[in-house]
Design goal:
alpha/beta, TIM Barrel, 8-stranded parallel β-barrel, 3-stranded mixed β-sheet, 15 strands, disordered N terminus, binds 5-hydroxymethyl-3,4-dihydroxypiperidine
Length: 474
């Protein structure tokens, strides 16, 4: 791994607009633990992480950062940071263990307590309804169970999701004003059902396209359920991880590779959600896999229910050229047409390139395509190999440099007229990084997973200073 230039003072001091929202983000399965407490049933991630060879070191989210029991301590950490907002996700299998039927009050009570403590600390709660922990029963029925399975490729999952959204909105709608339906449906559809590196680990390219459509449908149905339950001024949103796609060269074949990945990585969600249509080129590119007849009349109208903002998760750009890549791939139909090129420059512990220009490019591109949609950076951050030194301090200058560069890119986008309303740093805590288990640390607060001791890293203090001054230090 190449070291990042850890000299933030080389960048200018920059003020952000008044009222800019400064947050941290987490997700239920990655931090909560308490996997079998208070009625929670397994999700697809519990099953997947128990499957040998799927998650590094055989790690699971059984205990994670034990946030379920340490929630008050974690809220206090955020109060110290001075964040204005906190983005968390609700675990569907805690609220509706089988994905159907009545809610479990103890599950809802946990989120009620969380939200009440946040509000008491002056922090605005931002609730995400789905961050990948699908109730296992909806993916495949338990032995002897009568419910049909199938996960996101199955249409009924979208209907169940809307019901669950209504339950959570009824329970928390009086105290949560900002709601996100789905987090990164691209990962749920294509890492879950095409490449299989995420739960449920299926490698069925055609099914992954069905999954993508049903996630769009689920989003639209959930928006309707939320609007029916929430006050009129509630903010309803969707978080995507749009790919900042770059063609390696200006050659037509490379530009065509970029077009394919833009369709599969971005427009597969953006077009249904904001324009109520499927991208024609995507339908043509995937004709060998599906005729898309699972899209029923009226579905795209539902998917395009009005939302109030779009959440953007950005980490690194995607550079492509004409060529081929091996499967199982998360890019159904593109294996024979696209090769992925490593972007140059320093890299994080995930081996992702550090490239803040990609964020600027993405934001300005989205502004051009969706001029009336306010944007919120709902995730951005970096993993590094952090450790506590003998004095107990955690020095992470590379993360500070990463954050500074990316916030400077957000500032540039603001100056270019992009309507960015806030920034949520991923992540508050070191946590379960999916197939990488606990081997990758994204937190600005270090977690010693043996003792569950929390230690704010240098980046936490730096972020607190950014929030306090509502801008970047010079
Ligand atoms: O940890 C994940 C998160 O759950 C979704 N967005 C990307 C993060 C880093 O990989």
């Amino acid at each position: 791994m190449t070291a990042v230039d850890a000299r933030p003072q080389a960048l200018p001091g920059l003020a952000f607009p008044a009222g800019f929202r400064w947050g941290t983000a987490t997700a239920s399965y990655q931090i909560e633990g308490a996997a079998a407490e208070d009625g929670r049933a397994p999700s697809i991630w519990d099953t997947f992480s128990r499957t040998p060879g799927k998650v590094r070191n055989g790690d699971t989210g059984d205990i994670a950062a034990d946030h379920y029991h340490r929630m008050s301590e974690d809220v206090a950490l955020m109060k110290d940071l001075g964040v204005t907002d906190y983005r968390f996700s609700v675990a569907w299998p805690r609220v509706q263990p089988t994905g159907r039927g009545p809610a479990v009050q103890k599950g809802l009570d946990f989120y009620r307590r969380l939200v009440d403590e946040l509000r008491a600390a002056g922090i605005r709660p931002v609730a995400t309804l789905y961050h990948w922990d699908l109730p296992q029963e909806l993916e495949s029925p338990s032995p002897g169970g009568s419910a049909p399975g199938g996960g996101w490729p199955r249409r009924e999952t979208a209907e169940r999701f809307a019901e669950y959204a209504g339950i959570v909105a009824d329970a928390l709608g009086d105290r949560v004003a900002t709601w996100t339906t789905l987090n990164e449906p691209w990962c749920a559809a294509f890492l879950g059902y095409a490449s299989g590196v995420h739960a449920p680990g299926r490698t069925e390219p055609a099914a992954s396209l069905r999954a993508a459509h049903h996630l769009n449908l689920a989003h639209g149905l959930a928006v309707r359920a939320l609007r029916a339950a929430l006050p009129a001024d509630a903010e309803v949103s969707l978080t995507l991880n749009p790919h900042a796609v770059r063609a390696l060269t200006d050659a037509e074949a490379d530009r065509d590779a970029a077009r394919r990945i833009d369709a599969l990585g971005n427009r597969v969600f953006l077009d249904p959600v904001f324009h109520g249509r499927l991208p024609e080129d995507l339908v043509a590119d995937t004709a060998g896999l599906t005729d898309w007849s699972f899209v029923r009349d009226g579905d795209l109208e539902i998917a395009s229910e009005r939302i109030d903002s779009l959440g953007i998760n950005y980490y690194a750009p995607t550079v492509v050229a004409a060529g081929t890549h091996d499967g199982p791939s998360p890019w159904p139909g593109a294996e024979e047409h696209v090769r992925f090129e490593p972007a140059p420059g320093p890299r994080t512990a995930m081996d992702w390139p550090v490239d803040a220009d990609g964020l600027y490019e993405l934001l300005t591109r989205l502004r051009d395509g969706l001029p009336d949609v306010p944007l919120v950076i709902t995730e951005n951050g970096a993993a590094y190999d952090d450790y506590a030194d003998p004095e107990g301090a955690v020095h992470d200058p590379e993360r500070v440099a990463y954050l500074h560069q990316h916030l400077a890119a957000v500032h540039r986008a603001l100056a270019a007229g992009v309507d960015v309303r806030g920034y949520f740093l991923w992540s508050l805590l070191d946590n379960f990084e999916w197939a990488y288990g606990y081997s990758k640390r994204f937190g600005i607060v270090h977690v010693d997973f043996a003792s569950q001791r929390r230690t704010p890293k240098d980046s936490a203090r730096w972020y607190a200073d950014v929030i306090a001054r509502n801008g970047l230090p010079g």
